[in-house]
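Researcher: I'd like a candidate sequence for this fold, 305 residues long. If you have to choose between options at a position, lean toward the conservative one.
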C-alpha cells in the first residue's frame, strides 16, 4: 500500500490513536505520524512504544501542516480541542475523529471547522477494555466496521479518501446519518456497557451480604461483564453524557422488556422465557455464522452453531 497522507496528526494516543498509528505503519499510509496528549507522562510512554514520528503536548503544534487530523481523545474534550486547532488547520485537510458518538461531535466540532477543511466524523466499531499508548495494536480494525457520518454538504472526494484510508487500516466502511448511528450504537454498545457497569456495581454492593462469594465464584457470564465494566471511566462518562437522548430511549424499552421477564418469572410463565431465550440463541448463532465474533474467547475454537 502506498502513502495516502504526507502527515497525519493523531490528537490522543491511547488505545485508538496508537492502534491507528500501528495500522498506518503496517500499510505505509502516512509519511509522518504526529501524536498529541495533554499529559507529558502519556507522551513519554508513547515515545517509548515508538509508533509516532513526533509527539507533542501542544495540540496546535501537532496538527500544523497535517493533511489528516483525527481526534482520538474522550468526546467531552472535542469542543475545546477543535477551538484550539481550528486556526492552524491546513486548507484542504481532512478533520476527522474516532469518537463513539456522532451527533454531539457534529454539534461540538462543526462550528469551528474553517472554510476549505473537510470535516468527516468517523467511528471505528472496534476496541477493548484497555486504554493508553501501550494498549494499541495494528490488527484492531481488521474486519471491523468503521462508520462515517459526513454532514450532507461534504465533498464526496474527501469522503472517498477517508473511506479508502479506513479500508487500508483493515476496516469495512459504511456511511450513515449521525442520528441513526447514535441510536444503533446506543443499543449495540452504549446500553450493554451501562448494564455491565450496573451489574458489577450491584454485585460489589452485595459483597457484604454474600461474604465475598460473588467475586470468588465469578466465572463465565459475570466475568464477561467485569471485562466490559473495566473500560475507561472517562471515555464512558463522556459517551453517556453525549448520547443522552438515544440511550434514554433504548433504556425505556429495555426497562419495559425487563419488567415483562420479571412478570414471567413471578407467574411461572416458562413459555415466555423459553421463546425469548430461543430467539436470542438464534441471534448469537447468526453472528457466529457471519464470522463477526472475532473478539470472542471461543472464536476459531468451533463454538457450537
Ligand atoms: N476504547 C474503545 O473501545 C473505543 C472504540 C472506538 C472508539 N473509541 C473512541 O475513541 C476515543 C479514544 O478512546 P481510547 O479508547 O483510545 O481512549 P484512551 O483512554 O486509551 O486514550 C485517550 C487519549 O486521550 C488523551 N486525553 C484524555 N483526556 C484528555 C483531555 N482532557 N485533553 C486532551 N487529551 C486527553 C489521553 O492522554 C490519551 O492519549 C474516544 O472518543 C472513544 O469514544 C473508543
Ligand atoms: O470490545 C470491546 O471491549 C468494546 O467495548 C468495543 C466497543 C463496543 O462496544 O463494541 C466499545 C466502544 C466503541 O465505541 C466501539 C467498540
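Model: Candidate sequence:
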Amino acid at each position: 500500500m502506498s502513502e495516502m497522507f504526507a502527515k497525519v496528526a493523531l490528537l490522543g494516543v491511547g488505545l485508538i490513536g496508537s492502534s491507528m498509528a500501528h495500522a498506518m505503519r503496517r500499510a505505509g499510509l502516512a509519511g509522518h505520524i504526529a501524536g498529541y496528549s495533554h499529559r507529558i507522562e502519556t507522551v513519554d510512554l508513547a515515545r517509548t512504544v515508538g509508533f509516532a514520528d513526533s509527539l507533542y503536548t501542544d495540540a496546535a503544534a501537532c496538527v500544523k501542516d497535517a493533511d489528516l487530523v483525527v481526534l482520538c481523545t474522550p468526546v467531552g474534550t472535542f469542543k475545546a480541542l477543535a477551538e484550539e486547532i481550528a486556526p492552524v488547520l491546513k486548507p484542504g485537510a481532512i478533520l476527522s475523529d474516532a469518537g463513539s458518538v456522532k451527533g454531539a461531535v457534529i454539534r461540538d466540532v462543526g462550528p469551528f471547522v474553517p472554510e476549505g477543511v473537510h470535516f468527516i466524523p468517523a467511528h471505528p466499531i472496534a476496541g477493548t477494555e484497555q486504554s493508553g499508548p501501550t494498549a494499541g495494536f495494528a490488527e484492531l480494525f481488521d474486519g471491523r466496521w468503521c462508520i462515517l457520518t459526513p454532514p450532507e454538504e461534504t465533498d464526496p472526494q474527501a469522503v472517498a479518501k477517508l473511506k479508502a484510508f479506513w479500508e487500508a487500516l483493515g476496516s469495512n466502511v459504511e456511511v450513515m446519518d449521525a442520528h441513526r448511528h447514535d441510536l444503533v450504537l446506543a443499543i449495540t454498545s452504549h446500553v450493554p456497557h451501562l448494564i455491565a457497569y450496573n451489574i458489577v456495581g450491584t454485585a460489589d454492593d452485595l459483597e457484604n451480604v454474600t461474604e465475598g462469594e460473588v467475586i470468588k465464584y465469578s466465572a463465565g457470564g459475570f466475568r464477561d461483564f467485569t471485562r466490559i465494566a473495566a473500560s475507561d471511566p472517562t471515555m464512558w462518562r463522556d459517551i453517556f453524557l453525549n448520547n443522552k437522548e438515544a440511550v434514554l430511549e433504548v433504556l425505556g424499552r429495555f426497562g419495559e422488556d425487563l419488567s415483562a421477564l420479571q412478570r414471567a418469572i413471578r407467574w411461572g410463565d416458562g413459555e415466555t422465557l423459553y421463546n425469548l431465550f430461543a430467539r436470542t440463541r438464534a441471534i448469537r448463532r447468526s453472528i457466529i455464522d457471519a464470522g463477526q465474533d472475532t473478539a470472542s474467547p471461543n472464536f476459531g475454537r468451533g463454538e457450537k452453531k
